[in-house]
Amino acid sequence: MQAVSDEGRAMYNGGQAGLTFWSPNVNIFRDPRWGRGQETPGEDPAVSGRYAAAYVRGLQQPYGGGGRHGGHTRLKTAACCKHFTAYDLDSWSGTDRFHFNAIVTPQDLEDTFNVPFRSCVVDGRAASVMCSYNQVNGVPTCADESFLRGTIRGKWHLEGYIVSDCDSVDVFYRDQHYTRTHEDAVAATLRAGLDLDCGPFLAVYTEGAVSQRKVTDADIDAAVTNTVIVQMRLGMYDGDLATQPFGHLGPQHVCTPAHQELALEAARQSVVLLKNDGTALPLSRAAHHTVAVVGPHSQATVAMIGNYAGQPCRYTTPLQGIGRYVKTTLHQAGCTDVACQGGNQPIAAAVDAARRADATIVVVGLDQKVEAEGLDRTSLLLPGRQAELVSAVAKASKGPVILVLMSGGPVDIAFAQKDRKIAGILWAGYPGQAGGQAIADVIFGHHNPGMYTSTVSILMIQVGIEFQMTKFTKN
Predict the structure, then answer these.
(1) DSSP string, 88-149
(2) Which is nearest to 275 in space by CA: 394, 380, 397, 437?
(3) Catalytic annotation on 352?
(4) DSSP of 391-413, one letter per residue?
(5) 144, 165, 170, 376: which one is catalytic?
(6) What is the distance between the alpha carbons of residues 405 and 272, in angstroms, rounded to a whole number?
(7) How far apart are CA 6 and CA 28, in angstroms?
């Protein structure tokens, strides 16, 4: 995270960015079809909590003494843990996040959903927390005083501000009809403990709430103070940037060779081995001179960086990465895109390439058109005819077949697990700009793969987990 904070400060010094990162997303990845699961550390509260604290400390890089309990007062950047709380649905079966009411017991809040947020604030000392769009037990999180004042600021002692998800206040007024008037919505959220509104709602209606005596000057003073304190800790009032501790950071500190190597190493460590029959993996460069590289993600670029990503320094596609290890690559996409729908898919060309190769690597999966913010999945199956492509290529290949999955959420690959022609399976997530090189490094034995952060039983596909999103939904 030091690399991220260095580049963040460099961009700020150049007038290209601010210093608040609305990250990390530490919501519990409870349902594998959730479109934003890709942003989270996974389903395990304990793992998510440790991740949250480490992420925040690494991003904020606190320094300077004099803080509470002997801590630091100054920040290099400001982290924001989101989205508090019990948020794991965007749009599914007629319910969206703007109308979602999560029915959650106090024990589930304490033992599951709030665990990573507590770690963010208590252990990581995060500068801010973002409340979510949804309601919890009938109350919008951004208007829940027991959550904002009682838990985040009262029990956990947040030293910073609480911010709404963008237009959340307008959402609970206009979409959830939680208050009768705009001014009542202002009063509800400020008195609950919100400090900063992402959106124009408070800017437009707070003056009216004050004149109607629904909000006091003290309410506004508290919100402003909590926000400005973070700005002060970031050094925004300290004068000339060049004279400040991080004033030396500039364009030369963005996309450095060290940072690009870090991106590659992170991608390597993200690759997970799901199947390896016999001695299929790693592939031998001496035995496999010609390798077929097929699948809709075989030349992936933008898909590899997932969502909420910046401009990468450069891309290394799977085809490029594999090409650095072998004498000849035979490339055929096999699908016109990730959706892989319709009768015009070039599956036959991919099959022909597999017949002529010493080994075949099939790169399939999802992208932001399948799983994303505002887009939950209805199935865990590979999109369109991707599974057909995989099976056809495996049947035709004269050498070992390695299946590589790119996705944020889990995918049902029972068919591939059972297919004896598919010797190895790797999950790569959305591995970032260097993902293609990382995948190749694992396939050819330069790096050993790791562990997966989510579990899903193949037998639960579509039927068994049908209850998970709906059981928390009241509206």
Answers:
(1) --SEETTEETTS-EE---HHHIIIIITHHHHIIIIIT--SEEEE-SSEETTEEGGG-HIIII
(2) 394
(3) no
(4) HHHHHH-SS-EEEEEE-SS----
(5) 165
(6) 10
(7) 28
- With cut-offs at 50, 70 and 90, classify the pLDDT of residue 72: confident
What is the set of domains in the chain, with CATH numbers? 20-235 (3.20.20.300), 261-444 (3.40.50.1700)
Q: How far is CA 232 from the centre of its chain?
A: 29
Contacts of 218 (CB under 8 A, 6+ apart): none
pLDDT per residue over 185-229, tens digit each? 999 999 999 999 999 999 999 999 999 999 999 999 999 999 999
Tell me whether residue 312 is exposed, middle or buried, using C-beta atoms within 10 angstroms of its C-beta: 0 to 12, 13 to 18, 19 or more. Answer: middle
Report the sign of the C-alpha dihedral through residues 85, 88, 92, 97, in that order. Answer: positive
Query: Which residue bears the tokens 């990468």?
Result: 312
Report whether 430 contacts 406 (CB < 8 A): yes
**pTM of the complete model:** 0.92
Q: Does residue 236 sit in helix, strand or coil?
A: coil
Question: Pairing mode, if any, of strands 359-365 and 401-406?
Answer: parallel
Residues 69/125, Cβ–Cβ less than 8 Å = no
Sign of the C-alpha dihedral computed for residues 342, 362, 463 and 410 taken in this order: negative
**Cis? peptide before 470, omega within 30° of 0:** no
Q: What is the pLDDT of residues 345-377, one digit of tens each?
A: 999 999 999 999 999 999 999 999 999 999 999
The two three-digit tokens of residue 436, written as one number: 């293609």
